[in-house]
Design goal:
The protein is built from twelve helices and 17 strands. It has 498 residues and is an alpha/beta fold. The chain has two domains: 1-42; 43-433, no CATH class. It has a 13-stranded mixed β-sheet with strand order 2-1-3-5-7-8-9-10-11-14-15-16-17. It has a two-stranded antiparallel sheet with strand order 4-6. Strands 12-13 form a two-stranded antiparallel ribbon. Helix 11 (398-412) runs parallel beside helix 12. The radius of gyration is 26 Å and the shape is globular. InterPro entries: F-box_dom.
């Protein structure tokens, strides 16, 4: 009799079992009616798929191998495809190579069989997944997370365990040359060309919380390129890299910059999660993360943003006027008046480092601390001593922040559907800027929380008087309402109303 329960009752049973974290798979085998009632609960939630058979991971429910996934979504299982919305794909490679746990011994070579075999497995796993999904209905919308999973712990040839390989200490000062560089999975030569175009992937995420997803940024961009109807991409680069392994940081930034030029035209949401690229100590010069004199990443983010709906960037150093380029006097360049963002609604620049991509600081120490910095003779001592080198930088480079807000102001006036803009510096003292248009009212709220004070050029760029309206706000805040914001934004043809 139980096999003839109404679907409403089966729904309640499935909900109860799911809340109890019990497996629903046995219920699908009772009868056809139970299969129809329980499978939507199984397949509509996050499914963990492993690229190889016989592999599992603690905490992964609803898990299966890729071969089993292919089986249950083919033939009689075609009806399951529309149920599947969210897939976490674990790319199984032979050896787990955690970051900063080993150091080089005599004879070490970065081009070794362990990394090569991992790359082979990575490439094969991605190709197999894309060959599977290329046959799916293009109208299906699938969200995929990608991350590496090593079958077993291991080391590369000619290395030894060294759990402080990511540090700079009195007893370990040779990390630049002795620490084994982090492993990130690459495609082999022209390997990405083996990927077929896939039309059913709507969202792509490279952001496994811990450990790092361990996929090279350039390879991630190549994967995204093949998702021809992709609308959202989350690129997690929040990985710790030793500051003295600067070549990796520079190459990673350039790989992202190059990849942005190949993104599908369908992309509407782009989120980049970076890790703070800082020197060992605040006393030191910043890191130059550029491979050349040109900041191609800032330029290419601008080009990408023109077709986006949301742009969210965390902890990434950018040129201050990257959204709306200015001349040396902070005036708009002639070419910028053609810039227009017809769809952009959200711009979030969070945790912005107080340094330019070239490494130049935009927050400076007090004169007393600067004297102390100038007198440093032994930087090794400063780096190794936990108590040294942590000076404050309370003095803002005002022209830098003028330029930043002027650029954002001109850009915002070319964003007719902007709902929210935020720029937050990762620094003390604070610099937090927020801008919120109030929809059909034609008004907008402008808020700055900082010791820095904008000049008239900033007010002109935003077409607003910068006065504090709310007496309850701290003295370091500026809040103003732009009553006629709607008159200052771009028209439907991209012409600014002056």
């Amino acid at each position: 009799m139980g096999t003839h329960l109404p679907q409403e009752i089966l729904y309640l049973i499935a909900t109860h079992l799911q809340d109890a974290e019990a497996s629903l798979v046995p219920c699908t085998r009772v009868c056809r009616e139970w299969q129809v009632g329980f499978e939507p609960f199984i397949y509509s939630k996050l499914i963990h798929v492993f690229s190889a058979d016989g592999v599992s991971k603690e905490g992964c429910r609803r898990a299966m191998s890729l071969s089993h996934f292919q089986e249950v979504t083919s033939g009689k299982g075609l009806a399951r495809r529309p149920l599947i919305r969210h897939l976490s794909y674990h790319i199984v490679v032979p050896v787990d190579l955690p970051d900063w746990q080993t150091r080089k011994q005599k004879g070490y070579n970065l081009e070794n069989n362990v990394r090569h075999n991992n790359d082979i497995a990575f490439q094969s796993a991605i190709v197999d997944l894309f060959n599977t999904l290329t046959h799916w209905d293009p109208n299906l919308r699938l969200s995929i997370e990608l991350a590496l999973l090593g079958r077993e712990a291991g080391k590369e040839p000619h290395t030894s365990d060294w759990d402080i390989a990511g540090e700079y200490r009195y007893d370990y000062k040779k990390g630049r040359t002795k620490s084994v560089p982090v492993y990130r999975a690459h495609f082999l030569d022209n390997g990405a060309s083996l990927l077929p175009d896939v039309a059913c992937i709507d969202r792509l995420c490279f952001n496994d919380d811990f450990p790092s997803h361990q996929i090279w940024a350039g390879s991630a961009m190549q994967i995204a390129q093949r998702c021809i109807t992709l609308t959202e991409m989350i690129l997690g680069l929040d990985e710790y890299i030793r500051p003295d392994h600067i070549e990796y940081i520079q190459a990673r930034r350039q790989a992202v910059a190059d990849g942005l030029l190949t993104m599908p035209h369908s992309l509407r949401v782009f989120r980049l999660l970076n890790e703070m690229e800082s020197p060992w100590k605040q006393m030191m010069a910043g890191l130059n993360v550029l491979l050349s004199d040109n900041d191609f990443l800032s330029q290419n983010i601008l080009y990408l943003s023109l077709s986006l709906r949301e742009l969210k960037i965390n902890q990434l150093s950018l040129t201050p006027d990257f959204l709306f380029p200015l001349d040396t006097e902070s005036h708009p360049l002639p070419t910028t008046q053609s810039l227009y963002w017809p769809s952009l609604e959200v711009v979030e620049l969070i945790g912005v480092p107080p340094r330019l991509p070239s490494g130049q600081w935009v927050a400076h120490p007090t004169p007393e601390d600067q004297i102390e910095i100038d007198e440093v003779e032994d930087w090794e001592m400063i780096i190794c001593d936990y108590e040294e080198g942590n000076v404050s930088r309370p003095i803002f480079d005002r022209e830098h922040f003028h330029r930043t807000l002027i650029s954002l102001g001109h850009a915002a006036r070319h964003m007719p559907f902007l709902r929210y803009m935020q720029y937050r510096l990762a620094h003390t003292p604070n610099f937090r800027f927020e801008f919120k248009p109030h929809g059909s009212s034609g008004k907008a709220e402008w808020l700055l929380y900082s010791l820095y004070r904008p000049d008239q050029r900033v007010a002109d760029a935003w077409k607003c008087p910068l006065v504090q309206l709310d007496a309850k706000l701290p003295a370091m805040s500026i809040r103003t309402i732009i009553a006629d914001w709607g008159q200052h934004i771009a028209g439907s043809q991209g012409n600014v109303k002056n």
